[in-house]
Design goal:
Elements: H1 3-12, H2 16-23, E1 28-30, E2 33-35, E3 42-46, E4 53-58, H3 62-77, H4 80-83, H5 86-102, H6 104-115, H7 119-140, E5 147-149, E6 158-166, E7 169-173, H8 179-193, E8 196-200, H9 207-219, E9 226-228, H10 233-242, E10 248-252, H11 255-266, E11 271-275, E12 281-284, H12 290-302, E13 314-318, H13 322-334, H14 354-369, E14 373-376, E15 391-394, H15 401-404, E16 411-417, H16 420-428, E17 432-433, E18 436-439, H17 443-449, E19 458-460, E20 475-476, E21 479-480, H18 485-489, E22 493-501
Parallel strand pairs: 7-8, 7-10, 8-9, 10-11, 12-13, 12-18, 13-16, 15-16, 18-19
Antiparallel strand pairs: 1-2, 3-4, 5-6, 6-22, 11-21, 14-15, 17-20
Length: 503
Amino acid sequence: MDQAVSDYLDRYGVLDATRAFLERPQHMFIGGEWIAAGKRDAHEVHEFSTGGVITHIPAGTVEDVDAAVKAARHQFENGEWSRLKPLEREILINRLADLMEANIDELAEIESIDVGKPRELAREIDVQGAIDTLRYFAGWATKITGRTAEPAALPGSHLALVLKEPVGVVGSIAPWNFPLQTMIWKLGATLATGCTTVIKPAELTSLSTLRFAELVQQAGIPDGVINVVTGTGSTVGQAIASHPGIDKVTFTGSTAVGKLVGTSAIQNMAHLTLELGGKSPVLVFEDVDIKQAAAAVAEGIFFNAGQVCDAGSRAYIHRSIYREFLAELADYAKGLKIGPGLAPESFICPMVGKKQFETVTSYIRKGIEEGAELICGGLPNQGESAFVEPTVFADCSNSMAVMREEIFGPVLATASFETEEEAIALANDSEYGLASAIYTRDIDRVFRVAPKLKAGSVKVNRDGQVDPALPFGGYKQSGVGKDLGPEQLDHFLETKTVWISLS
C-alpha cells in the first residue's frame, strides 16, 4: 500500500478489518482454493482520489478460466451442489446474506476505497442493495416449477410435462462502477436456479468481490459453486465469453464491448444477457415544482459522478420554464460537495481511473466546441486528474456528441421543447433505450407518454430507482435480456417438454 493511500485511510478512519484486508496479499478464488499471482502478472489497484496504489491483484490467465470452469462444471453435474434440495439452497443463500449483513460496514468501506464512492452511499445502496437482492432470490429457490399440459391439437391421448432446469455454468462479467451490487444481480438468479458460476470482476475494482468470496467460503457454499478470476477483459473476459464449457454469459458494460462478448458467446450458442450502455432521456413538463424537480434531475445524473449506466444524461425541458429550471439545476449542482469517498458529506466522487477522466473531459471539450452553452462546471484546472465538476450544457441539439453518446460522467446535456409530441420524439431519437424519466403532476400525461418511450424503464418524478423484484434492462443498443425480477430467472433456466403417450 502506497503511503498516500495509508495517509488517506488514517485521515478519515476505517475499520481495522478493512485495513487488514487491504494490506494482505490478494488471491483469486478457484474451486475453493486461493490462488496467488505466482508467476502471473499482477495489476495495480488504485485509490482514485490520491492516485496511490492500494494493493495488487493477480492477472488471471486462460488456464485459470479453464480451471474455474472445470470446478464449476463438477459442482453442477456431480458435486454436492447438484444434490441439494431447493430449500437447502435457499438456506445457504440466506446464510451468505447474513454474513454480508454482519460485515456491511467493512464491505462498504472496501467499496468506497476501491471505487471512490461516498462511504455512506456505498453502505446503503451498494451493499444493502446486494444483500436485499440475495434475500429476494433466495426465496425464489423453492418456487421455480414447471407445469403439466394437454396437447391442443395432437390426435390421441397424451400428457405433457414442461420442466424447468438450471442452464448450467454461468460466466458473469461485472462492471467497475457498482462492482459488488452488479455482481450480486447476476449471482442471485444463478444460485436460486441451481447453476454454478465463474465471475470476472472489473480489473479496476475487484476488491469487494474478493472479500465477498471469503464470505462465500465462510457460509459453507460448496467449493466450485462460485469462482472468482481476476484480470483483464481482453484475457479473462474473452476466455469466459468464448469458453465452450460455459452455458450462459451475463455481462454488464459498454455497448461496444458487449457486442464483442455476445459475438464470442454465440459461437457456442451460450445463453446471453447483455446489460449495456445508455443515454437516458429526462422529460420535464411545465407543471412541475421547479425546485424539487431540478434537485431530482441533478441527483439522477450526478450520483456516483454520473458513472451510472441508466443516468438521466439528457434532459428536455418545457420551453416556458427552461431558463428558470436551468438556474435551479445549476444552483443545486454547485452545492454538491466534491471529495474522496471517505470524506464526510462527499457526493461527487472521483472518476474511476485516468482513462475515464480523459474520456469525460474530452466530451466536455466537444460540447463547448459544438456550440452548447456551458451553464456550470466545465473543464477541470490544468493538472487535475481525479474530479470533474457537475457540468450542465444548454441549447444542445440532438446531433451533438454530448446528446448522442454515452459520456459516463457528471455531464448533463439539455434542450427545450414545446409540445408533448416533440418531447417524445426527442427522447426516442437515440440508439439507446435503457431508461427514461418523466417529471409532471399530470397523471393522464404519464399514461400517455410512458407507453411511447422506447426504454426498458420509465421513472416518474424521480430517477435512479432499482429493486430486486423488478426487471432491469434496455431496448435497442442497450442490451438483451433482463436482470432482477422473476423475469431474470428464465434466462438461467432451460425449458424441457416431456411427452407421455396414454393411448
